Amino acid sequence: MKNFKLIFMLAVAVGLAGCQSKVEYGDATEVETVNENFGSSDLQAITAKMVDSMLTFPPIVAMTLNDRPIMFVDKIKNKTSEHIDTESVTDSISNKLLRSGKFRFIDMTKVDAVRKQLDYQNNAGMVDPSTAISFGRQIGAQYMLYGNLSSIVKQSGSTKDVYYKMTMRLMDLETGLIEWSDEKEIRKVKSKSFLGL
Amino acid sequence: MKRTMKSIMKKTVKHWLLIPLLSLSLSGCAFNSIFINYPSQIAPVKAQLNTNTPMKGVEDVASNISGADGLLYAQEAGRVAQISGDFEASKNYYQQAVAAYLEFDDKATLSVTDLGATASSLFINDNVIPYRGPGYERVMLHQYQALNYLFSGDGEGALVEVRRSNQLQSSEQARYQKSQKSVQAMANGTIDAEMNKLGKAAGTVTSSFLNAYSYYTTGLLHEILGEPNDAFIDYRKAAQITPDNPYLQQDLVRLATQLSMPQQEEFERRWGKPKIQKKGEGQVIVLLERGFVPEKKSITIPFTIHGNWQTASLATYTSNSGAVSKGKISGLGKTLTAAPIANIDALAITALKEDLPAALVRQAARVYAKSEMARSVESSSKKRHNETDFAAIAMQIFNVVTEQADRRSWLTLPKQAQIARTYLKNGRYSLKLDNSPSQEIEVKSGRTTLVWVIDTGNHTRFYSIII
Q1: pLDDT, tens digit, 9 for 90 and up, residues B444-457
Q2: Of A69, B102, B210, B378, which one has the greatest count of Cβ atoms within 10 A?
Q3: Is A58 on the interface with B (CB under 8 A)?
Q4: Residue B407 lies in a domain
Q5: Quick check: A197 and B112 CB within 8 A?
Q6: Listed range (A126-140, B15-29, B425-439) with the worst mean pLDDT
Q7: Quick check: is B428 in a domain?
């Protein structure tokens, strides 16, 4: 009978402990390995590699020596088997490039909002015409940054292998030449634990 | 002496009761289909789909998603929302089902919760084991999710789901590759009708374990979203499973010509020259889903062990409930007759067949465990006097009542899928399936209009998108 009580108490204790949850702050740059899916560490690794590679590529160094070329980011095509927010990847990359002080950017995602605002300034009759910004004065981009993110996933038994490849290119819009290109490979292997919950 | 005997007996009784209780608590709130059989839970939802208020039952189904069988309820809820045309809601439900599958994938080889569920299945029934769908259901989940993304205007998202189903399709294919010659042929990319004829007689046709509809849908999405090469691969696999579909044959000839594939000559010899889209014409593709996949029935066999009544219940499918008629689509010039691409019921039957050996082992173990439970109660009480043995009777009732067959399966899937394709001049057309009310669709030259027709028996729904 004593044993029974003990087992019962244990079961209750285990059951109650299972219901607890907690929240903690973590380091945003910490290596994250919750699962094998595309995660923050991958994003950071890709961004770091791409920005580094671009800023140290000799022709780009020469190009940005006396000038801050203007570029725009076309979207990165997601060719993986995961729903990945590729806009977040391009945001990180353009952010770092901009912070380097060597490039200037045009944000193509905000074109509609800008058009609306200019339309308001010029046509609503609410804004002093001398202060209204007129249409057709923006500067055109010289370069386009674009890329592909693809993956190969293989699974057999308890092992899962995920390989990501991010390719990025910088195109001169006037000549159509690719001025820079690089790729970042990431491989993750996951093996299932033998014992667990 | 007698006294110690009694206390020992008492102890064993307590322990016997303790084990099912503990294992039940380990398997969590898995009570949904343990006592109420699954088909009767879903029946009202299915009936609702044949009315003008299809989403009415979805809340009830969705409330079970947090439970142990959440995967199954998420699939059902997603499908109900999808049939009703609420693609955003459907996407959400399916996402939960996908997450549940991934969680299963991540589980350890020897998982405590799984062991707990299996242990409690020995005392209760197989319904306490959390539902984990057969391979074809998982592939269909991603296939339907891809259509959700497409119909909400996200082509890139649709292709992600297509790639996911391609991955699962290839792992399904690998599972059968060893045992089935026809699947080996599929990997080689050959299409031999002879193999299929042989298989038909034996009842082991490729189409009973691989889903041509999934291959066709993924191929179709690849094609209309600008990846004709990938489409060709999937169409070829679909044609290996369902070789006699004229629309699929046309697709293959057309793509082989378009991509100048080495098979072009062979395909033309077999199926004739491709019909090429003329100037000013648009393409219309019809996906037609008819009926509902059959429900599992249960067979219960009563018997006695050591004078105690017990039953054994197993799930089964009763013999086929009649063929599905080919859909006649009118309103697009001459009447178009859709051709079947896959029978989902055949896939369901094969999935059950595969599951049966394991279910029988569990059944045998359960019969033993339950008879031991009954005996342990009975012997201790009978020892005292020759009174009515309430405990033993109660245990027997418990044993009989809890013995329920595992009748869970994704029930809102269609029974059969059919396809049709044609070229039409620019303009508006009013489409009709058999005697259904008509639905207007638009055809734009150089573009593709995908029409998804879901016929749930008494109600036909049309969804179309121009790509």
Answers
A1: 988 999 999 999 88
A2: B210
A3: no
A4: yes
A5: yes
A6: B15-29
A7: yes
